[in-house]
Design a protein that fits this description.
alpha+beta, 7 helices, disordered C terminus
């Protein structure tokens, strides 16, 4: 590749990338942070959706002129299928970092001569900046959840929510800040309750996160 001025800096293409990237990021943040997160309150998926949306946009934008062989493309995404169906699955956050690592490698290796170095540099810095912002600024506390089968059915009533949370805190020794009441079995006087707590506030407590497949 010849190191010409156009290969180092192409302001027209760079501003096009910047405008499209900003628009895509804005829409993704509204969709994931405002609409999804207000209901689900799952920070691990918030982290995943934002970063995957970013890397997929950059892959499509920078590699639109690159013709990948079918075998290479299938092999790239088959990695996730293999890992997904392992006996011990990799957590969603680690899967996201894996996807980011592969995506950055593909972008840096296969970007064509039409992609200037300022666009490539912006792409790498944007990925690192968004990841750092989510990890260290926006997601200061990671919220985890745990499914509990609870037998004090009398505390399930709406007017006793505070007493219910206090009882769950005392029993589990977890800094629970909110709960969701699921299935209620009046024959056995039990209820399924999902408790939410910040793992950063947990000390010397051995807990495991609820599986994603749990309802």
């Amino acid at each position: 590749m010849d190191f010409t001025t156009s290969s180092l800096i192409n302001w027209s293409d760079f501003f096009n990338l910047l405008i499209r990237f900003s628009f895509n990021l804005l829409v993704t943040v509204i969709l994931v942070r405002v609409l999804y997160y207000q209901t689900a309150r799952r920070k691990d998926y918030l982290f995943t959706f934002l970063l995957i949306g970013t890397i997929v946009f950059l892959l499509c934008f920078l590699l639109e002129s690159v013709k990948l062989q079918l075998g290479f493309a299938l092999g790239l995404f088959a990695i996730f299928g293999i890992i997904r169906y392992r006996t011990t699955q990799i957590p969603i956050k680690e899967m996201t970092y894996l996807f980011l690592t592969i995506g950055i490698a593909v972008i840096n290796a296969l970007s064509s001569d039409n992609v200037s170095y300022i666009e490539l540099g912006f792409t790498n810095l944007a990925i690192l900046g968004i990841t750092y912002g989510l990890e260290r600024v926006w997601l200061l506390k990671h919220e985890s959840s745990k499914l509990i089968v609870y037998e004090k059915i009398e505390l399930i009533k709406a007017g006793k929510r505070k007493e219910l949370i206090e009882d769950l805190r005392e029993r589990t020794d977890l800094p629970i800040h909110r709960i969701d009441i699921g299935k209620i079995n009046f024959l056995r006087d039990t209820a399924q309750i999902i408790v939410y707590y910040y793992t950063d506030d947990v000390s010397n407590v051995n807990v495991s996160e609820m599986d994603d497949d749990d309802d």
